[in-house]
Write a structure and sequence with these properties.
The protein is an alpha+beta fold and 94 residues long. It is 37% helix and 13% strand.
Length: 94
């Protein structure tokens, strides 16, 4: 039901990492939000802690916390690996 009440438009004047949202409620009140740079953009990159949290939110339920932690740690040391075998072993589903 909510989807039928939404009108999305594309605004060529804003950058791809920006958002400009206006919401009009049934009582006529209007709420507006402009985000100059989205989190994760080149201008507002994710911190290591934010990346870790996002990674675990996507992986823990699929491969488990222990394997996800090992995968994250192995991926962080990718440049020093002799083989991708360890990385692939950690990435396999439970």
């Amino acid at each position: 039901a909510l989807r039928d009440r939404i009108t999305a438009t594309h605004d060529e004047s804003i950058e791809e990492d920006q958002v400009d949202v206006t919401i009009t409620l049934h009582d006529g009140s209007v709420h507006h939000l402009f985000v100059e740079h989205a989190i994760g953009s080149i201008h507002k990159p994710l911190t290591d802690e934010m990346l870790d949290a996002k990674f675990h939110s996507l992986c823990d339920g699929v491969i488990g916390v222990e394997k996800a932690t090992a995968l994250r740690q192995t991926a962080r040391s990718l440049g020093g690996l002799e083989s991708l075998a360890d990385l692939l072993r950690h990435a396999a589903a439970r």
